[in-house]
């Protein structure tokens, strides 16, 4: 049976990724994209797949990845898709998951960061965008399409932000410190630093695409 959840470690900033991997129990599939596969090889005794051109790892590191990955796929350095896009496409095809967690996708190079966030616009992933969760030590980001939604508070996160990736119609926020009643935005906007009033909140909108982020301040 296909796994219902997949964790993809991509090749961005690996700070805290090893710790986050420890929060995912058995039953998850694990895929490494480029240098993210090396992190998996260092943390797990075995993982499901390694995908990328691997231009950011040494020969010795590459051998470690080969030993630990059940499937190893080398991509050409010159290609029309990123390693992250290739890994995401493989996860969708191979496992038909209900949730896809991306680790190592935030921080590091700004072009890589924006490329990872821009996955929500990719026609190839249109039907899967609502399944994607982007996570690091401080943030959990999910994409939402029009409809009625309920969100549960992450126990360790204080802030709740709504970032419209497109114009949005009739955005309603309930059970938050700063509610909103059927507001239209004709351009992308960031509504940041809201907060849950309890452990759950609801929101809805009629048109557009939202990135919803739960976050916390970095420890000093």
Automatic annotation (TrEMBL):
Pfam families for this protein: TPK_B1_binding, TPK_catalytic
Domain Thiamin pyrophosphokinase thiamin-binding per the UniProt entry, residue ranges: 147-211
GO MF annotations, alphabetized: ATP binding; kinase activity; thiamine binding; thiamine diphosphokinase activity
UniProt KW keywords: ATP-binding, Kinase, Nucleotide-binding, Transferase
Record bears the keyword Protein biosynthesis: no
EC number: 2.7.6.2
Stored InterPro entries: Thi_PPkinase, Thiamin_PyroPKinase_B1-bd, TPK, TPK_catalytic, TPK_catalytic_sf
Gene3D superfamilies reported in the protein's UniProt record: Thiamin pyrophosphokinase, catalytic domain
Enzyme kind, highest EC tier: transferase
Classification via CDD domains: TPK
GO process annotations (BP): thiamine diphosphate biosynthetic process; thiamine metabolic process
Protein name: Thiamine diphosphokinase
Organism per entry: Trichococcus palustris
